[in-house]
Amino acid sequence: MGITLQNINKSFKNFDALKNINFSIKQGELVALLGPSGCGKTTLLRIIAGLETASSGKIYFADTDVTQLSAKQRDIGFVFQNYALFRHMNVAENVAFGLKMKPRSIRLSKTAINERVNQLLGLVQLENFAKRYPDQLSGGQRQRVALARALASKPNVLLLDEPFSALDAKVRKDLRRWLRDFHHELNVTSLFVTHDQEEALEVADKIILMNQGQIEQIGTPAEVYKQPKTAFVAHFLGDVNLLHGYIENNTLIIGDFRKDMKEQGNWADQSAIAYVRPHEISIAKTARKNDIQGQVVRIHTAGPTVFLEIAVAGQPKHIDVSVSYRQYEQQQVELGDNIYWQPILVNIFVQDELFEFMI
Questions:
Q1: φ, ψ at 201 (rounded to 5°)
Q2: Is the dihedral of CA 179, 180, 186, 189 positive or negative?
Q3: Does 213 lie in the same domain as 300?
Q4: pTM of the full predicted structure?
Q5: I need a labelling partner for 191 at 20 to 30 A (CA). Which of 47, 60, 227, 296 fits?
Q6: Are residues 39 and 82 in the same domain?
Q7: Range of the domain at 156
Q8: GO: which molecular function terms (predicted)?
């Protein structure tokens, strides 16, 4: 079942938490609602769930207007950040709870409930943990129980609020991969809230990136990462170098570097900032056409990756470059060396748009 939001707004007294939110999610998509803390993503998720009321706008599940329906009537599964499991119930009882609470007229038989619980525990790979209690499980196992419980009634839509944020990094990474595979098996329309860029980029089919109650960009992980529509998106989705230059005749000029920017639109002659990620920079020990000269002022090795800091004339900050350890050895880069470099992938924004990041 697809989801469509039309002109959703939410205000609390004098504060506008959500401003003119519009998007659609296709049946079976796994979508990340991504943004910094306080950007409105959890409020939006709660409005979709029916736990909060929008100040204005419409919500559709498929072709049905659910704006005025209660959470119970919307047929959604909700997974909370803190698991929300009943401590006095074992795993099987937690998963079965919602099924047992249904009105008698539509409640499954005891046998059918047990079959459904066993099926779900198999899906979340906890079939041998049915009799254990929440305090006997790891954080990752508890979250899988919460997911099984949310799916017990076969909801049309699955909503997850920061489902992995309380877990340590290793467990979080394992669960991300598991959720991706698990979701493809289920084919249920899912929306999850996260502030973790890596999580959204790895797991989601589509990312809705929010900032200050508004949508900044919607797209696939590759689209939002490689083709950011705003300076905020480029800045939020990973480390970037801000290179000071200017545009002249639709050409970006940074020192001796020139790049035709017509593919990104027609630009007036003006000062600009080029956003370049550390791994999107090519380096060499001898000068090539279009290279910028700099000096290596710091080298830091982190496993298979080597991070270089390069001081460049005319740039207020050092340039960060990341290369593979193999490339680093081949280049034989040493501290204090002159180095030649140039951006591979560039996104540019005019200085006014970047003011908030330059303070």
A1: -65, -35
A2: positive
A3: no
A4: 0.83
A5: 227
A6: yes
A7: 3-233
A8: ABC-type sulfate transporter activity; ATP binding; ATP hydrolysis activity
254 beta partners = 257
Give the whole-angstrom CA distance, residue 120 versus residue 320: 47
**What's the CATH code of the domain at 93?**
3.40.50.300
Asked if 270 and 154 sit in the same domain, the reply is no
pLDDT one-digit tens code per residue, 252-303:
889 889 888 777 667 788 888 889 999 999 999 999 999 999 999 999 999 8
Domain stop point among 193, 216, 233: 233
Q: In what order do the strands lie in the sheet with 270-276?
A: 257-260, 251-254, 241-248, 270-276, 347-350
- Cα–Cα nearest to 160, from 33, 271, 53: 33
Q: Which of 18-27, 117-126, 144-153 has the largest mean confidence?
A: 18-27
Residues 86 and 187 in one domain: yes
Tell which residue, 55, 331, 72, 35, has the closest CA to residue 207: 35
* Residue 359 in this model has a pLDDT that exceeds 60: no
State the total domains in the chain. 2
Query: Looking at the structure, do residues 226 and 246 belong to the same domain, yes or no?
Result: no
Q: Where does the chain show beta strands of DSSP type E? A: 3-12, 15-25, 30-34, 56-61, 64-65, 76-79, 157-161, 189-194, 206-211, 214-219, 241-248, 251-254, 257-260, 270-276, 281-284, 292-302, 305-311, 319-324, 338-343, 347-350
At which of 233, 255, 279 does a domain end?
233
The answer on pLDDT for 175 being more than 80 is no
> Same structural domain for residues 245 and 229?
no
Instruction: Determine the average pLDDT of the residues in 342-346.
Output: 90
Q: In the prediction, which pLDDT does 355 show?
A: 37
- Rounded to whole angstroms, how far apart are CA atoms 215 and 39? 10
Are 97 and 191 within one domain? yes
Does position 354 have pLDDT exceeding 90, yes or no?
A: no
